[in-house]
Amino acid sequence: MLVAKPTDDGFMVIDSDKEMVRLAAGLQKDRSISEEVTQRALECLSRFGQRLKHITPGQVRIVGTNTLRASRGSQAFIREAEKLLGHPLNIISGIEEARLIYLGVAHSIAGDEGRRLVVDIGGGSTELIIGERFNPLQMESLYMGCVSMSQRFFSDGKISTKRINKARLAALVELEPHIERYKSMSWQDSIGASGTIRAIESVAMENGWSRDGITAESLDKILKALKDFGSTDKINLPGLKKERVPVFIGGLIVLHAVFEALEIKSMMVASGALREGLLYDLIGQEQQEGTRSNAINALAGRYNVDQHHAARVEETAILLFNQVKNDWNLDTRIHEYSLRWAARVHEVGLSIAHSQHHKHAGYILRNSDLPGFSRQEQQILAALVQTHRRSLDLDIFNELSDEWRQKAIQLAVILRMAVILHRGRHPEAITVPSCKVHDSNEIELVFNESWLESRPLTTTDLQEEHGRLTKSGISLIFS
Questions:
Q1: Is the CB of residue 384 less than 8 Å from the CB of residue 397?
Q2: Which helix (DSSP H) or strand (DSSP E) does residue 153 occupy?
Q3: Bridge-partner residues for 131, per DSSP?
Q4: pLDDT tens digit string along 432-455?
Q5: Out of 3.30.70.3400, 3.90.105.10, 3.30.420.150, 3.30.460.80, which CATH number does the structure's domain 94-274 have?
Q6: Whose CB has fewer CB within 10 Å in the chain, the N or C terminal residue?
Q7: Total-model pTM
Q8: Angle at Cα 346 formed by Cα 342 and Cα 351, nearest 5°?
């Protein structure tokens, strides 16, 4: 946990805390998290929640990474965690984690010239990023980390040459599909981040195996020392904290494989990583919205969306939104932005097939890597685009949090209205009707005199929409 105060040149840390929970250690074969580790995590979050409960909503960002991405049934854990923390917990994709790590690293190192390789080894994943200044150019999140590798090859604590070689080969196999692409991009500096790599640097320097940062030779010497100990419970290395001993060898082998595969000779270590990246992202919310808008626009371009039509739908949707936002309490920027983004990509599924294209669009939004978005935010967008036509299936919104479910349904109704009004795909602007909310489940559209009379197809569409919404418990009136 990091608590900071914004300053002119970034932020000043006013409080921080850290507990070694190792959520990844509790991930079982059925992909559930063990009761013991779940309880340990919740107890930690309860303590953190005491510090966070007086901080204004919107000024806190809490994320879950690889273990919550991989686990089944994580929603129950998230709901309990959010009660303890008093703020939303968002699961982010591996690519979003990589973007935030790079942001934290880029702000924490001197100099801003040249291309960099950033490596971050977590409990269950390893992120590799190549970037320039504050812009990541290539990002990957690999399914190996200090906890998962230690559990997979050294679960009983025994260390041998055979086990080390097996773990090394497994790490190289995970890296293999990315080696040539990364090497072809070249970089001037290699930078490591987060606890595992900082621990490796500490051991290398405390034992005199490196004067600055981490070298390939120092990794070899640390690995030899671990092999000589023969088991994890005998490891006693200057510079290595006791709580990191059980998972140290897994992280070391991952970094050793990265050095070998990418032919790295030396690596400096940054003070910033994911937590710092989250803070910079939170401080620069306008930039964050720009990042997400860029991701949406890139997705629309990738799937050849008719962007002129999408822009017209977006404009009409926002005009309707502005008329009902107070009645429906759609009063935060994220409500408006969610509607805008959904309008821009509501037709991405057409590139797959016209039939059921709204369902294809929902799948794309749920499963694409979208920089700046959490998994929950992508689920919101997926629900909106999947319900922009045909029946309004309210079950689709059940995957959303209680806070968002009703809001998303209301946004979906607005998007549906805008789509219907532009079904003819005419390039000229339309006259947007007056939109009123009589109660939470009744919406009325009032058109200019004779507007509907001259558009019988739109009238028919609205009559059909009236029937669809009625089945979902929503009343549509138009005149």
A1: no
A2: helix 146-154
A3: 116, 136
A4: 999 999 988 999 999 998 888 889
A5: 3.30.420.150
A6: C
A7: 0.87
A8: 140
